[in-house]
Amino acid sequence: MIPLSWYLILAALLFGIGLFGVLARKNVIAILLGIELMLNAVNINLLAFWRYLAPEEVVGQVFTAMVFVVAAAEVAVGLALVISVWRRRNKSSADELDMLKW
Amino acid sequence: MEPIQVVFLIGAALVLFSAVMVVTRSNLIHAALYLILTLFGVAMIFVLLEAFYWAVIQVVVYIGAIAIMIIMAIMVTRDVTGEEHEPFNKNVIWAGLLGLLVVVTLVWSLTFWPQFGAEIQQSVDSQNVIADLGSQFFSGQGYLIPSIVASILLLAALIAAIKIAFPIKQEEED
Predict the structure, then answer these.
(1) Size of interface A-B (CB pairs under 8 A)
(2) Is residue B98 part of a domain?
(3) In terms of residue numbers, what domain contains B160?
(4) N or C end of chain B: which has fewer CB within 10 A?
């Protein structure tokens, strides 16, 4: 059988890759892709903990549902912002969007 | 090595390889297509965890809706056939170090946890799991309020996304 540690190490690696993507990428949509990877790592962790430690409780799956809902809402608003910025400024690189920086 | 462990390792290798491709490709369409591959790998991991419902939701919501939406946004905002740009900003080394540090710290601190190497203790009845989840979501003793909050959040995000992405009126453009 597969021990719990395998899932946790996989989720940690996926989270690290996603974090690298969020911090290092230039394009705003690429940053959103990194966030998706991180949310997926969290989902693997939640479902692994549910299956191994508390399969009779429903709470692990409720948290997973919450992460799914928040991910869908986040990507909808995030992409709307990207499209809006593109319409107004014709830019989609995070380095160029520094109007609020002084 | 048992067959199920081999299946897990294939799934994990698929997830990690395509995740690395997602964050390193300079062509955004390629990155988004590799994201779909990553999401399929994660769905495979969900099946191994006997979370069949979530594997289906992963394919329907993430691949069917989110990944397609991201590809549409890439096509709207960018000349995808244009020349390749440098994908990384100047923080790339620090970002790599920080990502590595987070992974090492997470795994290292988890090794002190007594249940780190836990095995599956009991089997689940996957049909009852889904029925139980459904009734818990809509019972006052269960998770009715979180599910209402989630619905309001989705409605708010829907309205906000339409409002934000709506075309600019001429007089606003000054």
Answers:
(1) 244
(2) no
(3) 126-167
(4) C
Got the DSSP string for A34-63? HHHHHHHHHHHHHHHHHHHH-TT-SHHHHH
Phi, psi (deg, nearest 5) at residue A91: -130, 145
Tell whether A12 lies on the interface with B, counting CB pairs under 8 A: yes
Chain A partners within 8 Å of B157 (Cβ): 72-74, 76-77
Length of chain A: 102
Is residue B80 within 8 angstroms of chain A, CB to CB? no
B11 and B65 fall within a common domain: yes
Q: Which chain B residue's Cα is nearest to A77?
A: B161
8 Å CB contact of B106 and A52: no
- Cβ neighbours for B51, distance < 8 A, ≥ 6 positions apart: A47, A50, A51, A61, A64
Which of B62, B70, B147 is nearest residue A32 as measured by Cβ atoms?
B70
How many domains are contained in chain B? 2
Cα B65 from Cα B63, distance rounded (Å) = 6
Q: Mark which residues 59-98 of A lie under 8 Å from B by CB.
A: 59, 61-62, 64-66, 68-77, 79-84, 86-88, 92, 94-95
**C-alpha–C-alpha distance, residues A83 and B74, integer Å:** 9
ipTM for the assembly: 0.91
B76 with B132, same domain? no
- pLDDT of res. B79: 60
Contact B23 A33 (CB under 8 A): yes
The 10s digit of each residue's pLDDT in B65-86 is 899 999 988 888 876 544 566 7
pLDDT in tens, A35-59: 999 999 999 999 999 999 888 888 8
A64 and A47 in contact (C-beta within 8 Å)? yes
